[in-house]
Amino acid sequence: MFNKSFAREVKTLGRIRHRHLVKLMGYCCNRGAGFNLLIYDYMENGSLWDWLHRQPGVNNKRKQCLDWEVRMQIALGLVRGVEYLHHDCVPIILHRDIKSSNVLLDSDMEAHLGDFGLAKSVVEFYDTTSTTESNSLFAGSYGYIAPGSLTLLSSLFPNFWVFFQLSV
Question: Which PROSITE patterns match (predicted)?
């Protein structure tokens, strides 16, 4: 089934191009089987969450802990990707679900922000007949959502949470 969230993600990813955002290569929708599939560039090093929550003794290819230089490189990549969404896209795009599991790492440990299922343009947030914000403003992952109403500034709150995770 081709739902609104999937359609929004395909539309959003189809029109944005930035080195620190995942690149949509294609998609498949099988209404009969009831599944949707997005095809992205392969990110060899998995998610930032995987690196921050490594299980000692588990058989994996993960390198040693992330050093500060790599952590700063990841943080800078995330900032550049979000900066593109907030300043270079027309209309502005708010990701609304930035978290360490949505920051994917390529073979060079460069950050690529993914999972745009909750992303919306700023225009979509406001009802055209009034100035009230829609209920859809409060989407995102628990613990990563800024308290209060969503603004461009509060949409940066999840970045700071990811930066905190990178610093410990």
Answer: PROTEIN_KINASE_DOM, PROTEIN_KINASE_ST
For 70-120, how does the pLDDT look when each residue is reduced to its tens digit (9 = 90+)? Answer: 999 999 999 999 889 888 988 888 777 788 899 999 999 999 998 766 555
CB-neighbour burial class of residue 24 (10 A; exposed 0-12, middle 13-18, buried 19+): buried
CB atoms within 10 A of CB 125: 18
Classify residue 12: in a domain, yes or no. no
Catalytic residue among 41, 67, 97, 115: 97
Catalytic residue at 88?
Answer: no
Q: Residue 93 burial by CB count (10 A; 0-12/13-18/19+): exposed, middle or buried? A: buried
The mean pLDDT of 31-59, rounded to a whole number, is: 83
